[in-house]
Amino acid sequence: MDISRLKSLRAGNKSSGDENPEEICTLLEAVKKKKKTLANIDEQILNTVDSEGITDEIIETDEYYLE
């Protein structure tokens, strides 16, 4: 890649970091709230289904939350 192309890519990536910190905090709180809601729904599902075969579903859910 030539130097002008690399400089252009760098400038584009650098300028994309001009987000408002308050907006970032708001988005982070929304993601945390959504994650908590999903955890509550998972708990409700676990309380209503058979315990047979649930181990695999628990592992898959845990792996999702760890990503």
From TrEMBL:
Q: Where is this region: Disordered?
A: 1-20
This protein is called Uncharacterized protein
Which source organism?
A: Mytilus galloprovincialis (Mediterranean mussel)
